Each structure stands twice: as structure tokens, then as C-alpha cells.
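Handoff note, outgoing to incoming analyst
You'll be picking up this chain. Sequence as last confirmed:
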Amino acid sequence: MIQSVPLRIGDETATGLKVDLPDSPPLVMIIGRTGFLMCGFLNMETAEKLNVTAAMVSGVRNFDDVLEAEVKAATSGAKDKGIKVGMKGKDAVKLLL
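Most recent structure output, in case you need it:
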């Protein structure tokens, strides 16, 4: 099943995307206007090569988990927006809205 929902983050709205996969944890991401925050399925090397503004969290199964998890990695584009490893996902998403 694929779920796409609006997520209210402060005064802004992001898009939550969750894809249930067979015999696997779900693929979960939160998309802002200028980039996205994603679970561990994100290949950081590829995202960096493509100049994508993205950050990665791990060990998440739903949108609340993503927002509460610590950022484990970020592309240069995400770092330029102020995203730092160790910050909460919710704070990273706010910088992408």
C-alpha cells in the first residue's frame, strides 16, 4: 500500500509518503518544498552526486518516528539549509519547508 498524506509541521505543510513493502520495513519519507527527509533506504552517495537536498534517519516505521528520529546523514544541499547530523527530524523538515 502507498500512503500520501499532508503533514502539518508548525505553520507549514509537508507531504508524508509511506510505501509498505513485502518482507521489509516500509519506505518512509517527508517531502518539503526544497528537499526531503527519508528513512535508511536513501542512498546518500547517489543523492550527493545528484545534488539532491536530502537528509536520512534510520530505524523508523511511520511519520512520527521520522519526525522524532535523529538525522544520521545529510547531503551538502541539506547542510547548506542548516540541517545537521544529530538534530531531530522535525527540525530538519522545518528547514525544508
